[in-house]
Write a structure and sequence with these properties.
Blueprint lengths: L19 H13 L16 E3 L2 E3 L5 E4 L12 H11 L11 H11 L8 E5 L2 H16 L4 E4 L8 H4 L15 E4 L4 H4 L3 H18 L6 E5 L14 H11 L3 E5 L24 E4 L10 E5 L5 H6 L10 H16 L2 H20 L5 E6 L4 E5 L9 H13 L2 E2 L1 E3 L5 E4 L7 H18 L3
Parallel strand pairs: 3-13, 5-6, 5-7, 7-8, 8-9
Antiparallel strand pairs: 1-2, 2-3, 4-10, 9-10, 11-12, 12-15, 14-15
């Protein structure tokens, strides 16, 4: 592998130990794919098919997928397969034609948000949604300064990569971007809100001093790339108030925390009891079909609408909207928000019980089906990336897929499809306990 290192990424260090057919695939991949692509895991996983919460390789091995939120309903959910197949046989066009399906879905989607968020514009990806949201925010505020957390990830367009520090030093931040710490109660204790209030005030002052002004605070509502930090829940309201007082807006990135994953309503920001000015949606929206959106207060988009003609050929087209409608309906019909809350709480209790016997598992935290387990050095809170990677790799070798997160790559990141059930949870806990016994020092 060349280029910047990815958390839980294949580096090529173990290439010689790969089976012949994997080496052949890696060689073919290197010869045809463009630059920048990377693979998960020390030993990459070949996949041939998926069903529900499982993936299958060419040998027929069944992997428990406890990480994939792209297919939020699980792999190949029948409702999405049927909706997309049906729509492909009827019509595929764009938002420049009058279409009831687009309006029906938009009304259903907006009904899941606070009343203040009453407009939606469609894109294909979360990166595009964040790019568009920033353009809207700039038009509204007249400012350019952006504030994000120190290891945030918000997308891959040139504009959005400029405020995605987790992409690393080879993808530098823009001069108009300032970073603040993510909440980290394990290390910051009860003073985390006070500390971050001071940090965001300093960021605001610095942006204003350099002539950028304050355009937007952009925050992933579960601080996923910062190591999965769901607490404290009074923080986002404090940060949003500081930014709004400086003339900026609060943009909630719900690409990872949204669509019921936290088990506390449809959207991650709801746990924090604050209403954003803009919200961006992405990956889970179409269960594998590219569809995303920017949701906003209508007054925030007024200036952008006066001066810009926005069009996205596939954003809001019939097939992605059919997929998104199937996802929305299935979450509601199958009670998957309640399921995320109940199964997530069961997993959190189970992981905490396992961690109680392993001091190197210093913290278990999460909300719904989004959990992080912090791996540290002995008798301290310093991160242990290598040990976390060993846990991830051991689970992969025993057919369970999780990943790692955080600025130091030491937080085990667990994010199963929303259809995870009691049996799936029991298997995950059993195999995690076994991995911990094999990998963690006694």
């Amino acid at each position: 592998m060349t280029g910047p290192e990815m958390v839980n990424g294949f580096t090529g260090e173990h290439l010689a130990g790969q089976p012949p057919h994997i080496r052949e695939l890696l060689d073919r991949r290197a010869k045809v794919l463009g630059p920048g692509y990377q693979l998960f895991y020390t030993n990459p996983v070949e996949v041939r098919r998926g069903s529900g919460v499982h993936l299958y390789d060419s040998a027929g091995n069944e992997y428990l997928d406890a990480y994939n939120n792209v297919v939020s309903l699980g792999h190949c959910h029948p409702a999405v397969v049927e909706a997309v197949t049906r729509q492909l046989s009827i019509l595929t066009t764009n938002t420049r034609y009058l279409r009831a399906d687009l309006l029906d879905f938009s009304e259903r989607l907006l009904a899941t948000f606070p009343a203040e968020l009453d407009r939606v514009t469609y894109t294909c990806t979360g990166s595009e949604a964040n790019d568009l949201a920033l353009r809207i925010a700039r038009a509204h505020t007249g400012n350019t300064g952006v504030i994000v957390t120190r290891n945030a990830y918000h997308g891959v367009t040139a504009e959005v990569a400029a405020f995605s520090p987790s992409l690393g030093p080879t993808s530098p931040l823009g001069p108009h971007v300032r970073t603040i710490s993510a909440p980290d109660p394990l290390r910051h204790g009860a003073e985390v809100v006070t500390m971050l209030r001071a940090e965001i005030r300093a960021a605001v002052d610095d942006l204003q001093r350099h002539g950028f002004g304050v355009c937007a605070l952009v925050v992933d509502s579960i601080f996923s790339s910062d190591g999965v930090q769901p607490f404290p829940t009074d923080l986002l309201g404090v940060l949003a108030a500081e930014v709004r007082a400086a003339g900026g807006v609060y943009l909630a990135d719900e690409v990872q925390a949204g669509f019921g994953r936290t088990g506390a309503g449809w959207w991650g920001f709801g746990r924090h009891e604050v209403v954003p000015d803009l919200v961006t949606l992405g990956k889970p929206m179409g269960n594998g079909i590219p569809v995303a959106a920017t949701v906003l207060r209508h007054e925030i988009g007024r200036e952008f609408g006066r001066n810009v003609r926005y069009f996205n050929t596939f954003g809001g087209s019939d097939v992605p909207i059919a997929a998104a409608a199937a996802v929305l309906g299935t979450i509601d019909r199958e009670g998957l928000i309640d399921n995320a809350r109940e199964i997530g709480a069961h997993l959190a209790r189970g992981f905490a019980e396992i961690a109680s016997g392993h001091p190197r598992l210093a913290d278990v935290r999460g909300a719904g089906l989004f959990l992080g387990i912090e791996v540290t050095v002995p008798d301290g809170t310093d991160p242990d990336r290598a040990l976390a990677q060993s846990l991830v790799d051991d689970l992969r070798e025993h057919f369970v897929l999780v990943s790692a997160s955080g600025p130091d790559g030491n937080v085990i990141k667990i994010r199963p499809p929303l259809v995870f059930n009691d049996a799936d949870a029991a298997l995950l806990l059993e195999r995690f306990a076994d991995a911990a016994a094999r990998v963690l020092p006694t």
